[in-house]
Amino acid sequence: MGVIDKLYTSTVVVTMKVGDKLNGISVAWVTRVSWSPVMLAISIGKTRYSHELLLNANGFCVCVLGKNAEKVAEHFGTLSGRDVNKFATVPYSFSKRGYPVPEGTIAYMECEKTGSFEAGDHTIFVGRVIDGKILKDEEPMIFGEGRILP
Predict the structure, then answer these.
(1) Which fold has domain 10-25+50-145?
(2) Is 90 exceeded by the pLDDT of residue 96?
(3) Is 145 left (phi over 0), alpha (psi -120 to 50) or beta?
């Protein structure tokens, strides 16, 4: 374990739609970056299919997972949307603007993409939160020390 592993964050699934293609990726690198307007940033590896989609997307949805959604986090974190439709076997609904919201989500934030920045082997995508909803009043799944924490 490295010192960076002492930073704890909520575990989320970032979903996107480009044309008729839906995809999602488990992400632990998400943070607030502004109160006014409300904005957040996500960090996505450049080799990921989701990275390719986000470069062409107008926005994305950050779906905060509840503590009991470990299988959902694993599903969206281990499969590639290049090879499979990740939503084929996971129940989901749609947000107000049509982003997929997987089962296990306790809250979501729809974001309009405002910029992206190179960050080593990742790209940081910044989004202005334009809508959101709390679905369940539960604690989020937390990632730290290189793993999902109990």
Answers:
(1) Pnp Oxidase; Chain A (2.30.110)
(2) yes
(3) left
